[in-house]
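pinging the channel bc i need a second pair of eyes. not urgent but kinda urgent?? the chain im working w is below, pasted from the shared doc
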Amino acid sequence: MPRDTALHAYWNFFESFNSRDPHEFSMALHYPHVRISWRQEPRIIADAEVHALNTSWQPVLESGWDHTVGAQPQIIHTSDSKWHIQGGWTRVDSNDSPILSNHVSYIVTRIDDSWGIQCRYGTDLGDHVSNESSREAHDAVEAFRRAIRRGSREEAMKVCGPSVYVVDVGFARAVSPPEFLPLRDVGTANIEDIHAGTHSATIALTGSLNSALLYLTDQNGWRIRAISWI
């Protein structure tokens, strides 16, 4: 499948995963690549070769998996070189019976006229939808937005984790301490809950000039762990 649009890259991600070819699957991603999760500290993958060497289908095959079906994508934010997409997947067996589903948001970037997945925010298995958690995560983002509106970096940092993963086109790194986190004016941006569970939440800030996709985890209080600006 071509990767000349962000949506092509989204669908190519699942098609390449279903190929069971580690090199083909690795080419669906952009690097450095990072998958953000509440379950463990994320690992930034430097290039396609490293990703291919560390990719195995054995665990999913043992579950009875035959192929994965991508969820219909919902567009959150777009620019000429980056899209934020709300999506996810369902693993199915050879009878097309569902085994497992997950909610994921994808940061898709364009590098050298080719689109690929730069980062994934995973709600992750075992993280059940929780209205209370959604409200608490939403309140943390509201505090972050309010601090930016007041011009108080110190207050904004209080709702950030000890390190925050910053994702951009061809770029992904952990910023620690978060005082060095690049901020943009989203003081009047709208807040939209994208995915939420008991341990993690993905929330969008959508403004007239700047927008962001945030990933939060509950670390003795909800904290921002990743951010992608548009």
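so The first strand starts at residue 29 and ends at 36. and The chain has a mean pLDDT of 94. — does that match what u expected or am i reading it wrong
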